[in-house]
Design goal:
With 129 residues, this protein is α/β, with parallel strands linked by helices. The protein is built from seven helices and four strands. It has a four-stranded parallel beta sheet with strand order 1-2-3-4. The protein is flat. It starts with 5 loop residues before the first helix and ends with a helix.
């Protein structure tokens, strides 16, 4: 960053990902991903669930609501058709493994709140009363 040649080479080192989290975005995913300069799309499963009118679930190894799973399949298919990378925010290794098999190629795994909560919980588990 900001070294010699940064301004000449930055675009070669930078990726542009769009968020697809609405019905309209899913319906137009192929066209969105076909835009020159867009390198891929990132799925936020909770916001996508809300857009489809279903309760957001934590994206673990379990399946989300079928309407959301169908939307995710459409986004992955659009990524495959355009040669673009699809990423997704997930909460555990089981979800990551399942989504990798589905074609998701970039994984945001966990969150600082979940990591902190797990660490504190594990710490107190060993305390005797």
């Amino acid at each position: 960053y900001a070294g010699d040649g940064y301004y000449d080479e930055a675009n070669q080192e930078t990726s542009l990902f769009v968020m697809i989290e609405t019905k309209e975005g899913v319906d137009n995913a192929r066209e969105i991903l076909a835009v020159e300069g867009v390198d891929g799309a990132y799925i936020g499963p909770s916001d996508l669930s809300i857009a489809y009118g279903v309760r957001p679930g934590i994206s673990t190894g379990e399946h989300l609501d079928p309407v959301v799973e169908e939307a995710i399949d459409k986004i992955v298919a659009a990524g495959n058709a355009t040669g673009k990378v699809i990423g997704m925010h997930l909460m555990d290794a089981a979800a990551a493994n399942r989504r990798l098999k589905q074609g998701i190629r970039m994984i945001g795994l966990g969150s600082e709140m979940r990591f902190t909560t797990a660490g504190v919980t594990n710490c107190f588990k060993g305390v005797e009363q």
